[in-house]
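Archive maintenance. Older records in this collection stored only the sequence; we are now back-filling the structure field for every entry so that each record is complete. The fields below show one back-filled record exactly as it appears after the update. Entries are processed alphabetically, and Secreted protein is next in the queue.

ARCHIVE ENTRY
Title: Secreted protein
Organism field: Catellatospora bangladeshensis
Length field: 319
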Amino acid sequence: MNAPLKLSLFGLGLIAIFAATFGAGRVAGPAPTAAPAGHGTDAGHGSHGATPSTGAAPVPGGLQVAQDGYRLQPLTGELSPDAAQPLRFRVLGPDGAPVTAYTPTHEKNLHLIVVRRDLAGFQHVHPELREGGVWEIPLRAAAGAGQYRMFADFQPAGRGEALTLGVDLPAPGTYQPVPLPAAGRTATVDGYTVTLGGELRPGASSPLTLTVTKDGKPVTDLQPYLGAYGHLVALRDGDLAYLHVHPDGAPGDGRTQAGPQIVFHAEVPSPGAYRLFLDFQHGGVVRTAAFTAVAGTPPPAPPAAATPSASPTHDHGAH
Ligand SMILES: [Cu+2]
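Back-filled structure field:
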């Protein structure tokens, strides 16, 4: 581990963070295209929690329930697939106490993403902070019964960067999983058509352009939502890693137009399928368009005749 060399690239602020680190593989330099340290205040949701790591690829955000001494702790045991019920949780800090002070990112102290583990029923919401560091929001398991993943994307006050923690929550009932939708360039929602341009490239930042039309006409009066004309969350198929997606430009910066195109810079760590969720606001309503996109050359498909009787080495192979 060449930590001293790498740390010199970052400066004292990150040294403190690294000193608090207990996750393996995190003491390291950035990937060549990683955003600079301290980007947390203005980066996209997806940037939070992906931390520099040496040699190997960075650990994407959202895969851990605890990181850098912080822990995401649900106070609600399950979600209801039938009706909105209060979902409560808190974030415990390195001292074990609930975190009550946050630095806003994208105009909110905490962004909550909830999605079923088959990537159905995506929701991006903003809970209220109550006494004692308890976050609360009424929420329904939107895709019905099944196992859900909730991600909290936040920046504790005094910390130089945001992070994303994730935890599973069940919605009891009969789980009817849906296959990942096929990769495609267009998505429709409420009469809007959103077209995806650009390619995901493993290990590199690449531009994605999302173009919004309604009734065949470009939408040129998108409304700012949380400081941007669109917010894009990317989740990796297979483990729901929560990924880098940086908006390009902001409303009012003199160069960013209110549609029909919204430009992002996405960075994904590996080849394979991702589900992209675009939140945009028009006519006072926030809508979500979802796409499946494949980065690079996808992994080989499993053998069609694979059966449970296959060799154990296949079940435990490193792939
Ligand atoms: Cu948010």
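Update note: The chain has three helices and 18 strands. Residues 98 and 145 are 30 Å apart (CA to CA).
Entry marked complete.
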